[in-house]
Design brief:
There is one protein chain. The protein is mainly α and 107 residues long. The chain is built from four helices and no strands.
């Protein structure tokens, strides 16, 4: 095999490939949602992570990602995207302004 997708298909079958592709696609979708959030700090970070994951997915078309380091990078980036999306969903601009104002008063 000459790419990761064919390797996953050969090792786990069509259902395994579908699960792998579903995981990657859902991570990209979640990353897009978080990147377009109103949070001006976390949004660009998630956008960079999502584009990095997309670049890794494109690179998997020509490489089998044989070493553990490459695969761990994919899992860590996916986990960071999920966590930062959850942070973006719970972040409230009015609450953040209240916290910043109370911090300023303490100084």
């Amino acid at each position: 095999v000459h790419n990761k997708y064919l390797l996953v298909w050969a090792e786990t079958g069509a259902i395994g490939l579908a699960a792998f592709l579903w995981f990657l696609a859902s991570t990209l979708r979640v990353g897009w949602q978080a990147a377009t959030s109103k949070d001006t700090v976390v949004g660009p970070i998630v956008a960079g992570l999502t584009l990095g994951l997309l670049g890794g997915m494109i690179h998997m078309l020509v490489d089998i990602y044989h070493s553990r380091i490459h695969l761990n990078m994919i899992w860590i980036v996916a986990a960071l995207i999920m966590v930062l999306r959850q942070y973006c969903m719970t972040w409230e601009p009015s609450r953040a302004a209240d916290v910043a104002a109370s911090d300023a008063r303490r100084l």
